[in-house]
Amino acid sequence: MLPLSKMARRIHVAGKNADDLGNQCGGWTITWQGSSGAITTGTTILQAIRAAVLGGAEVTYSRDGSGAAGAAAGVVVIGETPYAEGNGDRADLSLAAEDVAAVRAVKSAGVPTVVVLVSGRPLVLGEVLGTADAIVAAWLPGTEGAGFADVLFGDYAPTGRLGHSWPRSMSQVPINVGDPGYAPLYPYGHGLSY
Hints:
The protein is α/β, with parallel strands linked by helices. About 20% of the residues lie in helices and about 15% in strands.
């Protein structure tokens, strides 16, 4: 599925984090907790995808995933909103219902789907894992969405490796190498490249 072609006839981008600079930056950006929206200058992932395509390729967008039918590929950018320290503590690290619904909408339109996860920690992927054709952990890419677009379109090969284990479910949290029955979704050191 990856890298995507810059010459695709149409790429449909969806998700609450696709066009939100504050969500890309996370906490400790401008203010302690950060905030969603245009909190500073920079390039969102949606803006970067639009700037990267070539040859008249069209990039469409909907937050909820509607309008994806007929696209050559879908990119659904989901994940967390900003937080810092204890204010970000959660008893459940599952994806928000809005995120799952956006992925489901793009995939149910018959579109090959890339999920981009913007977060400061591993989240429980749940049904998104079986729905998406590819999943990329973008972490908190900051103000320069173009750097992420470079990876999405293959201008730069991903090189990251997990510095922790990624849990399958909340029942595995916390999970560490050496735990009895260690069977994470992605083990410590996991990472793929082109």
